[in-house]
TrEMBL record:
Segments of this protein annotated with the region Disordered: 1-32
Species this chain originates from: Brachybacterium aquaticum
Lineage of origin: Bacteria, Bacillati, Actinomycetota, Actinomycetes, Micrococcales
Cited Gene3D superfamilies: Medium-chain alcohol dehydrogenases, catalytic domain
Name under which the protein is recorded: NADPH:quinone reductase-like Zn-dependent oxidoreductase
Amino acid sequence: MDRRTAARTVGRRASGLPTRRPREGPAHLSCGTSAFSPASTIDLDALSYRHLTAHGVSFGFSRHFESAPILEDLRPVLLPAAGRGEIRPVIDRTVGIEQFGEVTEVLRSGDAVGKLVMTFA
């Protein structure tokens, strides 16, 4: 993300786009979801009028019993695709655990593009 990016995270209880961008340039909207909250709504007209682009989705689960059935259903599709190289993680950098300070600074700066991986050797 470049420095003009406005990152916002909203839960399902929010309706529509939560904020306007502070200035021209790209923007990122991250919508958090929960299996136990009401359905989310996003105003597609507002998305279009603000010249925003939606790229993919990300889901998280707080309990193993929520994620296990979903992951099991995805296994026959995702694992072969990953094996063929069609699905790959985006890794910003890999550092040893002794460099945790660097990871902390990158997270605070918002400059990470992808996952930050720490190795334990």
